[in-house]
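Input set for joint prediction.
Command: fold jointly, output tokens.
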Amino acid sequence: MKQLKIANIPGDGIGKEVVAAATDILKTVSEVHGGLKFEFTEFQWDCRYYLEHGAMMPEDGMERLSQFDGIFLGAVGDPNLVPDHVSLWGLLIKIRREFEQSINLRPAKVIKGIRSPLLNPKDFDIMVVRENSEGEYSSIGGSMYRGDDEIAIQNAVFSRKATERAMRFAFELAKKRNGHVTSATKSNGIIYSMPFWDRVFEDVAKDYPDIQADSQHIDALAAFFVTQPDRFDVIVASNLFGDILTDLGAAIMGSIGIAPAANINVNGKYPSMFEPVHGSAPDIAGKGVANPIGQIWTAKMMLDHFGEEELGSVLLNTIESVTNDGFLTRDIGGRHTTQDVTDEIIARLKK
Amino acid sequence: MKQLKIANIPGDGIGKEVVAAATDILKTVSEVHGGLKFEFTEFQWDCRYYLEHGAMMPEDGMERLSQFDGIFLGAVGDPNLVPDHVSLWGLLIKIRREFEQSINLRPAKVIKGIRSPLLNPKDFDIMVVRENSEGEYSSIGGSMYRGDDEIAIQNAVFSRKATERAMRFAFELAKKRNGHVTSATKSNGIIYSMPFWDRVFEDVAKDYPDIQADSQHIDALAAFFVTQPDRFDVIVASNLFGDILTDLGAAIMGSIGIAPAANINVNGKYPSMFEPVHGSAPDIAGKGVANPIGQIWTAKMMLDHFGEEELGSVLLNTIESVTNDGFLTRDIGGRHTTQDVTDEIIARLKK
Ligand SMILES: CC(C)[C@H](C(=O)O)[C@@H](O)C(=O)O
Ligand SMILES: CC(C)[C@H](C(=O)O)[C@@H](O)C(=O)O
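tokens >
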């Protein structure tokens, strides 16, 4: 019997609803499967916690999380309560960094029953490997002077180690998929980091002669997501470029509400973290209308991560059978509630 | 009689073909109009020039350009001949910077007869005001060590002056349009420059109480370009974010081949420069199939800039009447050549 200890951090806004929904689903999966058991522990670390304690988590928060096999996160941030960069750097980005979750993995693919906003989405199936530890999201920089003379500087920091790690991850993934890696660059406009990025990409590509490797500038790549998304397989991107591309990926799928993600610790020292692409959407929180698919598909990525790819496939197929039969929340044109969709997936899993 | 001296820099690849086409159109406009005359001088500064001379332009290049009222540029760069960051920083970005063309103005709107890749594009009409002098495109940074320990650092530099200038430009523009400015930010992930950007935006917005002002994170904004492009009017964005958004804007219009741009010197000290969004597309150069609409619409922006808004409107209406009647190059699903489309626009302008 495989036992997995999961730390649930529902977070803010709709995070609470969708984590509850996806946790019920994971419980069902393990009931049905038999050989797998989850033990969930919930941590109420959110913006309200910050208002009370002046921090997004207790001082021993990271130590407590390190005892778990995985972290299942909803969404963090509610700018009405706490400025985003405070809540996010105090929880989401802190965990990504300190637990060396150096890869953020995000699929974008056509899901049956969910209408893409594209006229002709064809059958795209992309996996974005986002470098998740450095790049444009650095805490190096600052500002000086106030008023008319103020200057702010943000450093984007790229190391060979992290760049190469993301790229190798992408090439390894492409071996198991369709054998094609595209690098998101901007070496024509950004003169230090991106030519470096290209150089590392060329080096790594040499080790994978059987994989088709090419580069696209981020501006053109974003445009191709709209005009020809089916030309991509695996994309490797910096932290910021990956962020933008994966929201775009969610958009062409039909809704940010369905897009999943995994923050992967590749060295096995710390737990990985699973969180959907969408935010906390405080405007629709507590109304029971949030789309749970992003969080449920994220649960599928967690199953994959723990070596349960078969169960992961069963779950994704069940999601698709439910969406294909029209069980949709209103963000994707339906009239069903979070609970309806969740119940239907549970019912079908039990069959 | 208004006389305008224009420096034509066709540049690389299809730049040569589309600049020739759009120049013919401008000549026709001035013939028909009577009160306006263009004098064109052509400069062959391109990647071949670089291979011969070791620079993208002669030493007195900028001085010569400064004698003109405007610069009409095709496209720069051909990575088969010269690395992009060399050709671009030696010409395109050099001119943008040294001539203090601090605003890059790029429209994205539905054009009749050109099929958007969106299922339901509605009637979007966006103007992106891109900060064009600093930000993520800075020449500050570098790298150290080679091999496994290499680190590359790119500084994004934001000054109050340039940030505020772009924002005021956006608000002034919104007054003449639909009274709505959206700021492209990423203050949840990028902690120095973007919170600063937000602060300046809030300050500037206070001076325009009648303009609706809001902010969107760049990832969400990119997604909205696909799902709800009609919710925007004017968007103000940093150099990199503006770059990405305007390629996306071109994509949702139906082709990068039709998107125009103006690099505006707002203090009147130096000429402004007009160049389409698309690149030099060396793969289709010389075949007569390049879409000239981007360059011709760019000519319209030049007319607007010189106070000839009425002529500008006539030109855009003529473009739309031609596309609406199916005179399309193959990148937008037609079978016409560069020359066909150009001739048809000229014929209709003469009527
Ligand atoms: C060629 C490149 C440097 C340039 C930019 O990013 O500014 C281009 O993409 C553009 O948008 O004009
Ligand atoms: C909330 C924000 C800091 C975060 C990011 O940009 O990484 C989010 O957009 C994401 O993609 O997970």
